[in-house]
Amino acid sequence: MMYSLQTDHGKRIPLHDEAAFAAMRRVGRVAADTLDMIAPHVKPGISTAELDALCEAYMRQVGSIPATIGYNGYQHASCISVNHVVTHGIPSHTKYLREGDIVNIDVTPLLDGWHGDTSRTFQVGAVSILAERLVKKTYEAMFAGINAVRPGATLGDVGAAIEAVVRAHGFSSVRDFCGHGIGQIFHDAPQVLHYGRAGAGVVLEPGMIFTIEPMLNAGGHHVKVLRDEWTTVTKDHSLSAQFEHTVAVTDVGVEIFTLSAAERTRLTPASGAQVRASLNAMPEHRTA
Question: In CATH, which of 3.30.160.20, 3.90.230.10, 1.20.1250.20, 1.10.443.10 is domain 12-281?
Answer without folding.
Answer: 3.90.230.10
